[in-house]
């Protein structure tokens, strides 16, 4: 059943470049290509800009090899390809907040070789976010980014402007949390594909517009009846994933994806900022406090218990690791996180993605996992 409730999110996702061009023509504001969800988009919004997260196209390409190694993950290569192919020619700026070293190379190659880039900024966020010294450093870095944007635009970005943009972003985070809460229910009235459309579009649609659409969806959900069996309740974990075709395949064979730990989903919006008089500090510390990417999850592995708690809270029966091929950060913590989940009764399945991977073999492995789960229920 498709009642059209999430069609706007789907259209935004499929026509995201058209949306950005229309927004730019309508508002006269700058569009900024953002790399990594640690980018402090509150500052860009306060400056009257539209932050647009760079996503891949999930298609083979042959333009990145002169710029980055072929053994970099497919997301790195696909992201760079979108810039080199002119898909983001409407974006004046490009910014990256420190994540993995491979994606930093993607950013460096983009800023040097995409001819439409007029300015770039690298946010040197410390990886050891658990250190109080790193937090101080990141507050200072966010302030430096603010000064850069003020110089770039010739306009002051006041504390009140930052508070307003932070409030808009925090509202978006709270609304997405409310949407995801519906996935806790038996026979959830929000599918994994629909949740992905909602969360990923928040990363490139005007937040105010996105908030209004979320409110419409939330108002309709209490009386929604999808009339579909939930099947097995799956969780997805790992690298960036906005592969809608894969998610749809999983949910077509007797399962529902009820929660995720990915930067295309919950890691992006899970926590709001904490109240405080210093708005720059509130913005900076919110990113330090968010559910950690493996690149920022040390010396203590905070994400292991966070992922386990999500699995329990959403009554997950099995977890699927979606691994971008050659993704060093997620490869590094996969063995320990797998053991942690399985020791607590959550079986796992590991799938390694590349752009050219056909879905067929993945379908076979998903169906085998479902068969294993059904057999275990008999004993």
Automatic annotation (TrEMBL):
<comment type="similarity">
    <text>Belongs to the FldB/FldC dehydratase alpha/beta subunit family.</text>
</comment>
<keyword id="KW-0411">Iron-sulfur</keyword>
<dbReference type="InterPro" id="IPR010327">
    <property type="entry name" value="FldB/FldC_alpha/beta"/>
</dbReference>
<dbReference type="GO" id="GO:0018522">
    <property type="term" value="F:benzoyl-CoA reductase activity"/>
</dbReference>
<dbReference type="Pfam" id="PF06050">
    <property type="entry name" value="HGD-D"/>
</dbReference>
<dbReference type="InterPro" id="IPR017603">
    <property type="entry name" value="Benzoyl-CoA_Rdtase_bzd_nsu"/>
</dbReference>
<keyword id="KW-0560">Oxidoreductase</keyword>
<keyword id="KW-0479">Metal-binding</keyword>
<protein>
    <submittedName>
        <fullName>Benzoyl-CoA reductase, bzd-type, subunit N</fullName>
        <ecNumber>1.3.7.8</ecNumber>
    </submittedName>
</protein>
<keyword id="KW-0408">Iron</keyword>
């Amino acid at each position: 059943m498709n009642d059209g409730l999430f069609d706007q999110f789907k259209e935004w996702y499929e026509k995201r470049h058209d949306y950005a061009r229309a927004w730019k023509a309508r508002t006269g504001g700058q569009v900024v290509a953002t790399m990594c969800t640690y980018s402090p988009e509150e500052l860009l919004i306060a400056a009257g800009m539209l932050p647009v997260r760079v996503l891949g196209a999930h298609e083979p390409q042959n333009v990145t090899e002169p710029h980055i190694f072929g053994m970099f993950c497919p997301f790195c290569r696909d992201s760079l390809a979108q810039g080199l192919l002119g898909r983001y020619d409407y974006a004046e700026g490009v910014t990256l907040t420190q994540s993995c070293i491979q994606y930093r190379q993607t950013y460096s190659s983009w800023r040097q070789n995409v001819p439409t880039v007029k300015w770039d900024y690298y946010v040197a966020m410390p990886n050891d976010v658990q250190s109080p010294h790193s937090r101080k450093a990141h507050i200072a870095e966010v302030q430096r980014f603010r000064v850069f944007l003020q110089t770039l635009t010739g306009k002051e970005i006041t504390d009140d402007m930052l508070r307003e943009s932070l409030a808009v972003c925090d509202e978006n985070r709270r609304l997405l949390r409310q949407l995801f809460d519906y996935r806790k229910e038996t026979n959830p009235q929000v599918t994994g594909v629909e949740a992905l459309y909602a969360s990923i579009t928040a990363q490139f649609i005007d937040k105010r517009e996105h908030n209004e659409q979320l409110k419409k969806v939330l108002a309709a959900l209490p009386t929604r009846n999808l009339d579909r069996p939930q099947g097995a309740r799956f969780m997805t974990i790992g690298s960036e994933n906005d592969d809608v075709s894969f998610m749809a395949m999983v949910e077509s064979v007797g399962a529902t994806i009820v929660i995720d730990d990915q930067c295309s989903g919950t890691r992006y919006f899970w926590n709001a900022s904490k109240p405080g008089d210093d708005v720059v500090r509130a913005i900076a510390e919110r990113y330090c406090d968010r559910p950690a990417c493996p690149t920022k999850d040390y010396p203590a592995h905070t994400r292991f218990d966070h992922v386990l708690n999500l699995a329990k809270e959403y009554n997950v029966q099995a977890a699927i690791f979606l691994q971008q091929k050659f993704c060093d950060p997620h490869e590094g913590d996969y063995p320990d996180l797998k053991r942690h989940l399985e020791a607590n009764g959550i079986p796992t399945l590991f799938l390694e993605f590349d752009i050219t991977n056909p879905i067929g073999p993945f379908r076979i492995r998903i169906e085998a996992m479902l068969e294993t789960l059904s057999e275990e229920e008999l004993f």
